[in-house]
Write a structure and sequence with these properties.
With about 210 residues, the chain is of the alpha/beta class. Helices cover about 55% and strands about 10% of the residues. It has a five-stranded parallel sheet, sandwiched between helices. The N and C termini lie far apart (about 40 Å). Bound molecules: CO-5-methoxybenzimidazolylcobamide.
């Protein structure tokens, strides 16, 4: 059994190399990638989040933890985004974190898992304005636009993107949202087509939206 408590601690201390190695070792031991993701990586990051909230950790330390988390995610990526035998596209997903928001770990996870479900994914990154979403949609022609926000101050910008895409040639595109402060109630309030609480339910939502 992998020492997930130690892995959590290494995330906390920002030990990227150790996290990378422990992720590899856990997989080599035959653990399922979802278990490693949830118990090893995400659980470590939630402790970081708690201590960040209580001013025990500050931005530089959290950034270092985020880098360690990403080192583990890079090992899991091929598994998270492995296609089945049928590689025909399930749909086209355009993803980005909204304007003013620099959090990208959750978004990256959603992108990896959507690729795993057969979606062609274009990730436009963080701090994206409505104009950037529209320009990317002009070029990429997505079936779904997925937006991520981690801050209560940036989640309101999701409505700006939804309103900006509520006209031709964007109005056929389904709008999906997610991120720690997002709820179904908020999704309904701003007119989103759906909300994903985590990466797996986001993918279920995408499949439903293109179904
Ligand atoms: Co920030 N931060 N942060 N941060 N940060 C939070 C979000 C916070 C809750 C911490 C806290 O106080 N406890 C708090 C927000 C408070 C609030 O708004 N109510 C906060 C704050 C305040 C800030 C700053 C303002 C701090 C400051 O500067 N004083 C600042 C803002 C910067 C900015 O964005 N403009 C800031 C900065 C940072 C770092 C840069 C240091 C770093 C980000 C690094 C990076 O992403 N590259 C960081 C981090 C790491 C966090 C915490 C600790 C962890 C976030 C994370 O990666 N979680 C976070 C605390 C927390 O969330 N517990 C916190 C792991 C990830 C797998 O989960 O992102 O929730 P999550 O994604 C999930 C789901 O939400 C969902 O699926 C994912 C996988 O299951 N999901 C979607 C996400 N996006 C989706 C999109 C979808 C569907 C599902 O589309 C359809």
């Amino acid at each position: 059994m992998p020492d997930y408590a130690l892995m959590n601690q290494c995330i906390y201390e920002g030990k990227a190399k150790e996290v990378e190695q422990m992720t590899k070792d856990a997989l080599a031991e035959g653990r399922h990638f979802k278990e490693v993701l949830e118990q090893g990586l995400i659980a470590g990051m939630s402790v970081v989040g708690e201590d960040f909230k209580h001013n025990i950790l500050y931005v530089p330390e959290v950034l270092i933890s985020a880098r360690a988390m990403k080192a583990g995610m890079a090992v899991l990526k091929p598994l998270l985004s492995a296609h089945g035998p049928d590689t025909s596209s399930t749909g086209r997903l355009l993803m980005g974190t909204v304007r003013g928001d620099l959090h990208d770990i959750g978004k990256n996870l959603v992108c990896m898992m959507a690729e795993g479900a057969g979606f062609v994914v274009k990730d436009i990154g963080v701090d994206q304005s409505v104009e950037k979403f529209q320009a990317a949609a002009d070029e990429f022609k997505p079936d779904i636009i997925g937006m991520s926000a981690l801050l209560t101050t940036t989640m309101t910008y999701m409505k700006t993107v939804i309103d900006g895409c509520d006209k031709p040639p964007y109005d056929h595109i389904k709008m999906a949202i997610g991120g720690a402060p997002i709820s179904q109630m908020f999704a309904d309030e701003i007119g989103a087509d759906g909300y994903g609480a985590d990466a797996s339910s986001a993918v279920d939502l995408f499949l439903y939206l293109v179904g």
